[in-house]
Design goal:
The complex is a heterodimer. By secondary structure, chain A is mainly β. Chain A contains no helices and eleven strands. In chain A, the strands form two sheets. In chain A, strands 2, 4, 5, 6, 9, 10 and 11 form a seven-stranded mixed β-sheet that branches. Chain A is globular, with a radius of gyration of 13 Å. Chain B is mostly beta strands. Chain B is 0% helix and 53% strand. In chain B, strands 2, 4, 5, 9, 10 and 11 form a six-stranded mixed β-sheet that branches. In chain B, strands 1-3-8-7-6 form a five-stranded antiparallel β-sheet, with no helix packed on it. In chain B, strand 7 and strand 8 form a beta hairpin. The model of chain B has no long low-confidence stretch (mean pLDDT 91). The chains are: A mainly beta, B mainly beta. At the A-B interface, strand 4, strand 5, strand 9 and strand 10 of A face strand 4, strand 5 and strand 9 of B.
């Protein structure tokens, strides 16, 4: 099993550009999450999903969108990139009824 | 929203020393988790705790779920160079049953002085 994979690993965007961060898990986990981690800070939840077709906002959803058309994939969309979205983005997944989230390696995004 | 206070923020120790860090919450949690993050990588789960008073070990790591359900502790014995990294606590409250949302602490950065 590859676990949770994220692409790309690094990306530089100009203000106003859009992009999609990809996340795939091969563990058949129901729950998936997107976090952002700013320098020296903990993880802030952006969006989460408890199953295909179901998504909900986390703590910091503004400026982002998600979709969950399959169990495996949970892409995160930035429509109009802003410097405040410069961060490291982590995707995670967990099985139903456990709290043990497994994280991907992260995407480091810089918006200039 | 829920907050987790993690302390200390950073630790500078010598190889072989024992390490203790803790996490406190403003509300009751039903689950406590401890993660380690190496530079440039995602957090990796170390220990999960599900019951008040529970004491669980993973090699040289031992974690405890506080009796009040508002705190948790992580101890590392006889530290080695590969222990360097950032340690995060995370907790899940009863209100998040069903979506399994976690609240993360701000991390403890562990550095080993040669």
């Amino acid at each position: 099993n590859a676990g949770v994979t994220q692409t790309p690993k690094f990306r530089i965007l100009k203000i106003g550009q859009s992009m999609t961060l990809q996340c795939t898990q091969d563990m058949n986990h129901n729950y998936m999450y997107w976090y952002r981690q700013d320098p020296g800070m903990g993880l802030k939840l952006i969006y989460y999903s408890v199953g295909a077709g179901i998504t909900d906002k986390g703590e910091v959803p503004n400026g982002y969108n998600v979709s969950r058309s399959t169990t495996e994939d949970f892409p995160l969309r930035l429509e109009l990139a802003a410097p405040s979205q410069t961060s490291v983005y982590f995707c995670a997944s967990s099985p139903r009824n456990t709290n043990e989230q497994f994280f991907g390696p992260g995407t480091r995004l810089t918006v200039l | 929203g829920q907050q987790l206070n993690q302390s200390p923020q950073s630790m500078f120790i010598q190889e072989g020393e024992d390490v203790s860090m803790n996490c406190t919450s403003s509300s009751i949690f039903n689950t406590w988790l401890w993660y380690k993050q190496d530079p440039g990588e995602g957090p990796v789960l170390l220990i999960a705790l599900y019951k008040a008073g529970e004491l669980t070990s993973n090699g040289r790591l031992t974690a405890q779920f506080g009796i009040t359900r508002k705190d948790s502790f992580l101890n590392i014995s006889a530290s080695i160079p590969s222990d360097v990294g950032i340690y995060f606590c995370a907790g899940r409250s009863e209100s998040n049953f069903g979506n399994e949302k976690l609240t993360f602490g701000t991390g403890t950065r562990l550095t080993i002085i040669p």
